[in-house]
Each structure stands twice: as C-alpha cells, then as structure tokens.
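in:
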C-alpha cells in the first residue's frame, strides 16, 4: 500500500496543475519536439525564498486576533499571569503543529496543505469534511470577526465612554467586506497593494505598543501582574485557548502554496521556526504592554483593548492606535479574500468543489465567484456580533480539523514507511499536539455544550453534501442538466471562464 501511494503521489506531483498552466505559453523544443515554456511567458514560478516564506506566515498570523483576543483569554483565565502563560503555551502549541506540518509539506508537495494531507491519508470523504469546515465555517467566520474588529476600532473614538451601537458596528463591517470584495474582483494588483501597505500598518502598531510597554515596565508598572482570581476549572481554562490560538491562525498558510517555493525542503521548516518565534515574542510583549497600564477589569470591560490602552497613555495622539489597528484588520480581511481562491482550486482539482468557483473573470482575470461566495458567507455570520462566540466556533472547527491533519504524521509512518521524508519529526511532537488538541476540543464541550453542538452540526452537514453531490455518480439527467445550466448561467452573469489548460 505504501509503495502504491508513493507512486500515485509521484505521478500527481509530476503533472502540472491548472493554476500553473494558466497564462503559460509553449514552443516546441528543438531537440525533443516536446512543448516547453517560453521564458517570457506569464506563469506562476517557484520563486519564493526563505524571506518571502517568513513574510507570508507573519503576514497571515498577525491580523485582528492580537487586538480582539486579549479579552477572551483573560475572561477565561481570570488572572493576568495565567493569561500570559496561556499566550505563551498557544505560541508553543502552534510551533509544534507547524513542525509536524513541515514533515507533511516536504513529503506531500501539493498545494492545499491539510486538505491535501488528509486526502492522501484518509481518503476523499475526510478531505471533503476538512474542505467543508474551512469553506463554510473557518474562512467566512474569520472574515466576520476581522470585519467586526475593523468597525469596532473605527467607531470606538466616536464612543469613548461606551461601546458602539451594535447595528452600526455590523453595518460598517458589512461595508468593509463589500468594499474589499469589489477590490478583489476588480484587480489582483490593487488587492496586493492593499495587502502590502496595510501589513506595514499592523507591524507599526504592534511595535509602538511593545515600545510603550517597555517604557512602562521601566517606570515600575507591574502592579497588575498577579495570580489573583485565577480560574481553576479546566473546562473554562480550555476556552481561553480558542481565543489565544485564534490570534495565531495562519501559521499553516505557507503549506498552501508550497509548490511555489524554490527549495521547500530547506526553507519551509526555517520559515516556520523563524516566523512562529517572532510572532510568539511580539504577541507576549504586546499582552505584557497592555497589562502594564490596564487592570483586569479594564481589559474585560473593553471590546477595543488597544484603544483603551492608547487613550490612557497617548493623550491627543491616541487616535493613532485605532487607525492603525483598523488598517491591520482591514488588511487581514483583504488577505482572507485574496487567498481563499487557492483553497477552492485545491478542492476543485480533486472534483470536490463546483467548477464555477475556480473560474476567473474574462476582463479582470480575478477569481470573482470564489471571492463573492466567501464574502456572502461572511455577511451571513454578521448576524452575530459576539466576537468571542464566533472565535469559539472557529476554534473548535479549526483545531478539530488541524488535529486530523497532524494525525497523518503517525498514520503515514505506519502505513507508508517507504515514502520519502526529507524532514522527519520525532513522534513525540505529533502525539503531544494530538493530546493537547483533544483537551482543547473536548473540555469546552462541558462548559459550552450548545455552541459545541452547533459547531458539530455545521461540520456534520458535510456528510450528506458529500454523498449527494460528489459520491452519487448516477444522478438523474435532470439534475445534471440543472447543474450544467446553472453553471453556464453563472458564467454568463459573471463573465467568467475556467483556467486555460494546454494539452
């Protein structure tokens, strides 16, 4: 079985994907007569270096999480010291998972990350459930959280003594999503510019907060660093990891585009280590900075912790922080829409997503259908403005599915021992990760059974969808005709076509 699976992977890795073929030009080779790419053709090259990889991971991790998660973590831990400990453990937990992904990424060199790993290890049904979780829960729910964070930080200066109105917050969040949907549908270049410049804003905001924290520590402001009121119920403490780990979401995004790295075997593990350590240090320093100035009650009473922090210390310049944090969250929403098309493509390559979601605009060469679907689902999640509750939904779904991907490491070691493994992690790492995943997914079921049941129900909806729309091959003619006509109608409406392929 191991040898057959390895041969299948080798054949799949040798075939150029649709995304790689898009925009390429070919000429006959003078010696062999085979088609080869023109050097000047437009193509997706393997040009990503170690520095590029670090930028991808850091840029994806640092978003709205560090600005909205402190309240959720502190609420579940009770004390400042335990919350800092949870932030540190979340960072280490992320590094262990990323290390396991390094082995999988160098062994299964296919875009799609955990979706590809689960598909190879456990088959199409398990892979589809992972795809369903990401497309129906994680991506759109994350978009809703980030857009709500954007609107909170924009509106907070206008409501200094109270929280902004709920309706206004959700309306502005919807406007943020629609604007970025338009930008991503209009021009890839424009969306990339938004991503670049707003990334600079988020880094500036965090550096400014960390420097302020060092100044406050130098003044001896350590009175809030205590273990007072520490929570002792393990099921409640486990909930804090949902908020903390949400802030680290994005550490596995480099694996989604591993086919574009120059030397993935060398650069992937290095990029993961450097980026995860950098984010861990920045996050812990930011949390420490917040608590040099704000008490537990002040953090718990604020939906926009960074704004409260700035109002206490920056005086007339306090407006700087909410503006830059809003830029950070705005860029995070843009990055979500920008990268989602890769996931749709990976699923469609395996025949598990509607083909229309891989199509591109004729006039703009942008993935209009996939961007519009993600935006529409994110707008649906805006029916709830409870950010912590949304993070719990995302946390349960994310770590349930990522735990399944990490399970691929020991599973493939046993079933396919002969597969080439340029990087081979010690089995203790995936075992530790799986145990911790079980803890943070099972314990919250005791504390929040309703939210957990809703999350499980959303995940299990993937099963009937899989058997009806994918597994069922002998559908009646009218269903096939309806699907075909629907696809053709959407193509005409949106003016989109499938990616070009060269035979």
């Amino acid at each position: 079985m191991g040898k057959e699976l390895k041969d299948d992977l080798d054949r799949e890795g040798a075939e150029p994907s649709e995304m790689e073929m898009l925009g390429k030009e070919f000429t006959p080779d003078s010696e062999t007569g085979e088609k080869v790419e023109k050097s000047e053709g437009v193509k997706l090259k393997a040009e990503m270096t170690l520095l590029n990889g670090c930028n991808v991971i850091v840029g994806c991790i640092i978003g709205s999480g560090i600005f909205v998660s402190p309240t959720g973590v502190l609420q579940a831990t009770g004390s400042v010291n335990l919350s800092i400990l949870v932030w540190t453990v979340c960072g280490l937990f992320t590094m262990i998972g990323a290390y396991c992904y390094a082995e999988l990424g160098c062994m299964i060199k296919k875009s799609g990350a955990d979706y590809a790993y689960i598909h190879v290890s456990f088959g199409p049904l398990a892979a589809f459930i992972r795809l369903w979780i990401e497309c129906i829960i994680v991506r759109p729910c994350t978009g809703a959280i980030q857009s709500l964070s954007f609107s909170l930080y924009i509106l907070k200066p206008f409501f200094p003594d109270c929280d902004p109105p709920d309706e206004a917050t959700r309306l502005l969040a919807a406007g943020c999503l629609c604007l970025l949907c338009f930008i991503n549908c209009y021009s890839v270049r424009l969306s990339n510019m938004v991503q670049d410049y707003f990334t600079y804003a988020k880094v500036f905001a965090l550096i400014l907060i960390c420097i302020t924290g060092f100044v406050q520590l130098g003044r001896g402001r350590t009175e809030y660093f205590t273990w007072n009121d520490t929570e002792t119920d393990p099921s409640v403490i486990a909930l804090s990891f949902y908020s903390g780990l949400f802030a680290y979401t994005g550490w596995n995004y480099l694996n989604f585009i591993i086919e574009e790295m120059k030397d993935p075997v060398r650069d992937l593990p290095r990029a993961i280590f450097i980026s995860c350590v950098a984010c861990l240090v920045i996050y812990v320093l930011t949390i420490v900075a917040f608590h040099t100035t704000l008490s537990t009650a002040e953090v718990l009473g604020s939906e926009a912790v960074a704004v409260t922090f700035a109002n206490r210390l920056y005086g007339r310049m306090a407006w700087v922080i909410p503006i830059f944090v809003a830029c950070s969250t705005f860029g995070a929403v843009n990055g979500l829409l920008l990268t989602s098309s890769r996931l749709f493509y990976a699923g469609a390559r395996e025949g598990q997503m509607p083909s229309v979601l891989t199509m591109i605009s004729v006039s703009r060469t942008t993935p209009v259908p996939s961007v519009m679907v993600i935006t529409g689902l994110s707008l649906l999640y805006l029916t709830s403005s409870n950010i912590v509750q949304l993070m719990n939904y995302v946390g349960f779904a994310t770590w349930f599915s990522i735990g399944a991907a990490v399970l691929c490491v020991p599973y493939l070691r046993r079933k396919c021992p002969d597969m080439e493994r340029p990087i081979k992690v010690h089995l203790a790492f995936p075992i530790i990760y799986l145990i911790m995943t079980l803890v943070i997914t099972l314990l919250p079921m005791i504390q929040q059974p309703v939210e957990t049941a809703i999350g499980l129900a959303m995940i299990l909806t993937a099963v009937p969808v899989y058997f009806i729309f994918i597994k069922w091959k002998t559908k009646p003619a009218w269903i096939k005709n309806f699907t075909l006509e629907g696809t053709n109608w959407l193509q005409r409406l949106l003016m989109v076509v499938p990616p070009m392929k060269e035979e």
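note: The chain is about 70% helix and 0% strand.
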